[in-house]
Amino acid sequence: MKFTYFGHSCFLVEIDGCRVLFDPFISPNPLAADIDVDSIEADYVLITHGHEDHVADAEAILKRTGAKLIANFEIVTWYGAKGIENAQPLNHGGSCTTEFGKVKFVNAIHSSVLPDGTYGGNPGGFVIETNDGNFYVSGDTALTLDMKLIAESTKLTWAALCIGDTFTMGVGDAVRAASMVGVDYVIGTHYDTFPPIMLDHENAVGMFHNAGIRLRLPSIGETIEL
């Protein structure tokens, strides 16, 4: 399994030959100026919620690649009106089977509205089960006891957790979230892009380390093996 980070909450996971892209927000992000959005290939695009900083490049990528969209019903419907029909809607607790494994839509505590003001449904995260290992993508969320349910049903290898504070969990709550879902390897998301979510990298890594958890903060454009 390979993980490539494109900044903010956007990353690509290569699983058993499938390219799975999460929350594509690249071209408006000045920190990702060196990323060529048009060179990104995807077989699936998974969207956690409708905010601009999670969907900005989704339409263009979906239309160019023909990737299958997986998101909540409202987001799938919104993109359907834009001509994107290769899609699988989910709602909380629901799952679907894909070429790379099982995708389950799980709870997140946040808000959601699409860029034109359309209601974006309730936000969520994803639990992904694959032959190469299982992982959790929190999306934008506060700490919630629902995370304990994930550990009860799925043995995870790693998790991508929001850590930037202000609009989502901060580092302290993300450390607790990692413990709740039962992982000792975390990749941080949703930090540094805007002034309110600037992260003290050294402090964050140290806080996770003190809890016996490895926090990885990859550079934008970096690919790591998982």
Automatic annotation (TrEMBL):
The keyword Transferase does not apply. Residues 7-190 form the Metallo-beta-lactamase domain. The keyword Hydrolase applies. GO terms for molecular function: hydrolase activity. Keywords: Hydrolase. It comes from the Bacteria. InterPro entries: Metallo-B-lactamas (IPR001279), RibonucZ/Hydroxyglut_hydro (IPR036866), UPF0173_UPF0282_UlaG_hydrolase (IPR050114). This is Metal-dependent hydrolase. It comes from Sulfuriroseicoccus oceanibius.
